Amino acid sequence: MGGWAIAVHGGAGVDPNLPRERQEEAKKLLTRCLQIGISALRSNLPAIDVVELVVRELETDPLFNSGRGSALTENGTVEMEASIMDGPKRRCGAVSGLTTVKNPVSLARLVMEKSPHSYLAFSGAEEFARQQGVELVDNDYFITEENVGMLKLAKEANSILFDYRIPAAGLESCSVGAAANSPLVMNGLPISVYAPETVGCVAVDREGRCAAATSTGGLMNKKTGRIGDSPLIGSGTYAGDLCGISCTGEGEAIIRGTLARDVAAVMEYKGLGLQEAVDFVVKERLDEGRAGLIAVSRDGEVACGFNTNGMFRGFATEDGFMEVGIWE
User: Fold this and answer.
1) CATH number for the domain including 283?
2) Cβ atoms 161, 139 nearer than 8 A
3) What's the whole-model pTM score?
């Protein structure tokens, strides 16, 4: 075994004009989460405990799109989803359509450990949460002033996506104009806010056990009832004997490519190393989609890959390596 390792992410697809202070806020949060995970791994907590602990921290802070700070549906409400997977026996749990559960990742863990099922959604998941006694809050708790403003912009543009996914040629269809080399604008207003779509954590402990967890509020202005890749085992989240993976980005493309499972599959069937597998999958399995992922191997390696203009991410390994970044 190569020792413990951990990686975190806060979404792929970053506004290239993101203000410097927001970049620094994101880096500080990622660093804090890494430190939480490092402390837990040094204390010999199992990887499954570590990823839950870190994602709970990400869900509680409103900076990224999960838990408090989740993206809003077309109706201005929050519907969250999450999943978690324990590599050694490939146990997993997932939830969707949550509106009152403060930490969706912990409910996903309870689905894995306290139910005969792997996936619960909407009213059934909420009822299970009440039965398990998890902390519940009003839906308003998750809604931030910034996201209310972002929903307004999305509705004005008649779009669910308004960052790197709006090509320059397609801006006119949104009644939006932009000069060359200028920030994207909508109805004459520059877009200076951003919407990372997912948070996640992967870890391997000193016993070589891998785990992964992913949590999100989904797409801004999404249709109610939409389910993305984050709660889908094998698409947004996967952990097995060889590695753990958490994905972020364009959910529909990640689902089509079963991105997370494919990293493990090419390692197993093609004999690729971790970074080779990540690079292969990002290049070959996304078609025209935009996404990114983080990964760890049972040998204590960390890796990431993305084809967006940036991805909020951080890594640490037992040998002292630590890195937090946004851009390529």
Assistant:
1) 3.60.20.30
2) no
3) 0.90
In 3D space, the residue among 63, 94, 311 whose CA is nearest the CA of residue 215 turns out to be 94
Cα angle value 311/312/318 (rounded, 5°)? 115
Q: What residue type is assigned to position 107 of the chain?
A: L
Residue 233 lies in a domain: yes
**97: which residues sit within 8 A by CB, 6+ positions away?**
79, 80, 81, 121, 122, 123, 125, 126, 225, 227
Q: For 154-187, what is each residue's pLDDT tens digit?
A: 787 765 544 433 333 333 333 333 323 334 443 3
Number of domains observed in the structure of the chain: 1
In a domain, 158, yes or no: no
Of the listed ranges 6-15, 46-55, 259-268, the least confidently predicted one is 6-15
Q: Which neighbouring-strand residues pair with 323?
A: 315
Catalytic status, residue 100: no
- Where in the sequence is the domain holding 33, given as residue range(s)? 5-141+193-307
Binding residues: 226-229, 248-251
pLDDT tens per residue, range 134-148: 999 999 999 999 889
> For the chain, how far is it from start to end, CA to CA, in angstroms?
29
d(CA 246, CA 197): 12
User: E strands of 29-89, at which residues?
Assistant: 80-86
Residue 321 lies in a domain: no
Instruction: Give CA separation, 106 vs 48, 94, 154, 286, 289, in Å.
Output: 11, 10, 30, 29, 29
Q: Let me know if residue 215 belongs to a domain.
A: yes
- Phi first, then psi: give them for residue 321, nearest 5 degrees: -70, 135
Q: Six-digit token pair at 232?
A: 């889908």
Distance of alpha carbon 117 from alpha carbon 127, whole angstroms = 14
Binding-site residue set for substrate = 226-229, 248-251
Selected catalytic residue, list 99, 198, 216, 317: 198
